[in-house]
Amino acid sequence: MSLKTAGTVLTRTLWTRGNRTPPAPRSSKMSGLSSTCGGSGSEPRQPPGRGEAQEQSWGANAAPTAREPPHRCASREQKPPKEHAGAAGVRRRSYTSTAAPADLRSYFWTRYNDTKRLVHDLIPPGACNLLNSSTIYANNEVDLSEVDIYGFDYDYTLALYSNSLNTLIYNTARSFLIEHFKYPEGIRKYDYNPNFAVRGLHYDIQKGLLMKIDAFHYIQPGTVYRGLSPVPDEQVLELFGGTFHIPLQQDSGFYGKGPKVKQFMDIFSIPEMTLLAVANDFFLTNDIEYDPVHLFKDVSEAIGMVHLKGYMYKWIMQDLDKFILRGEETEAVLRRLVSHGKKLFLITNSPFSFVDKGMTHMVGKDWRDFFDVVIVQADKPHFFTDCIKPFRRLDGNGDLRWEKIKSLDKGQIYKQGNLFDFLRLTGWRGSRVLYFGDHLYSDLADLMLRHGWRTAALVPELEQETRVVSTSRYSLNLTWLQALTGLMERLQTYRDPESKQILEEWQKEREELRVMTKNMFNPQFGSIFRTCHNPTYFSRRLCRFSDVYMASLSCLLNYDLSYIFYPRRTPLQHEAPLWMDQLCTGCMKTPFLEEMSHIR
């Protein structure tokens, strides 16, 4: 079935649901320009003040609505239409006129109410239960039968951690900030709020602002925070020179670490963002002058001390059951891959003693038998870009051996090294390799862009996001938001004061709907994948650096190892035959030529 035919069938089905006669097929002799026009499947009601009518068949890619506004088709002579075979005796007519409706207020609100009723009819029963958080989503086509080698990061890939770990990281870093850096004791009164920040946010180091940026480098209004308080949009415009745009030279660098703006990309960064907001808030609420740049450096160093001093490793090793989640699923994935003859390797920045303890807990003492190569303290992302550090071998006690490494052998533990020696010693290159990691920059970017490996991103937030998207409240709000936007786009050509007033009312409702949908994910920053309508900067990087992405490694258990992941063909703006707002408002994306002629 062609795309045009599918669009025709979908339009006819939707309008049949709405108890209207479906539109007749478009005549093959109709002018190409007239494809932007539409008519009614049955004789429509006319808005007041409509002028003389002429007959014309409806286009297949435009559905009728009550009180269709006047429009003029392309000025090309057309033959009288044939009657539709499925509706004998029914004449299909459309009316064109340059006259505007006499009662615009009634006309606008009739269109509004008809559209809103249609929105409820468009959502089929059970549609909210279609999403499954165990799904693997494809950005690029991946054939698992062509993948022979599977590689893994450790933290938040093989090992998933509970939220209580972030609480400990925050509390300990807060203590370092007070005791080591001599910050005010009053900061200690701020407890950790796990629901304040989300992954992928940007932080303006000089201004002390935490904010959400979309794929086009624009700040999402309403998501800029100084401390724990939102910054009004008007003040944001003042701070950034009258625009919400963040210039490329000021934005974070390739690895999210720019001189002026930093992007927080890994899950471990959530307590760091919260501590930054807390420290800023303390100085602001107590009217204490401070330097945001030094504050950022001190908080970053306090968080770093938690990792460098080994506190995090110590906590997890002392209570593996509390901090490590779903270890049995990790074992099941590894066992399945090995049983199908796949080669496995591990490249992690964590030390061997920590990895050994966790893997023994999840998989058993023989966990190294699953892996053909194990590399610890790899210093990613430099492991993927530098060719300076050689590989070193560790003995069974984790002590360093100093012999030259001529091969990477199964059962051995290696430290540091670099990817260039790894490729030379293993010969594992190109799309035969699929590597899993949670950090888009440190784990995946260089592997995809420089070396052509397949990459898989672990995004634990998918579980919560799919739960929200699957609710009937979200589906209804989003569908009505799209429909209302389409209705506003369709009727914006009316420039009289009364019409403008109604459109302003609708714009306020549209903004309220945007806030409602955002707050369902996170009251401060919303979804990690979406701004109001654009993808987030995080989402853009996710699509760029990962072939597939999933909530957890266990999602692999739902697929055969010869499965082919096909990305959905998401319509581009210029190629979509039918968008939701078009279906709801009965118009094509491009406004009619007559109504837009004054613009040109």
From TrEMBL:
Residues 1-96 are annotated as: Disordered. SUPFAM superfamilies: HAD-like. CDD domains: HAD_cN-II. Keywords: Hydrolase, Magnesium, Metal-binding. This is 5'-nucleotidase domain-containing protein 2. It holds the Pfam family 5_nucleotid. NCBIfam families: HAD-IG-Ncltidse. One of its GO terms (molecular function) is 5'-nucleotidase activity. PANTHER family: 5'-NUCLEOTIDASE DOMAIN-CONTAINING (PTHR12103), 5'-NUCLEOTIDASE DOMAIN-CONTAINING 2 (PTHR12103:SF19). The keyword Metal-binding applies. Residues 8-19 have a biased composition (Polar residues). InterPro entries: HAD-like_sf, HAD-SF_hydro_IG_5-nucl, HAD_sf. It comes from the Eukaryota. It comes from Betta splendens (Siamese fighting fish). Belongs to the 5'(3')-deoxyribonucleotidase family. The keyword Transmembrane helix does not apply. Residues 68-85 have a biased composition (Basic and acidic residues).
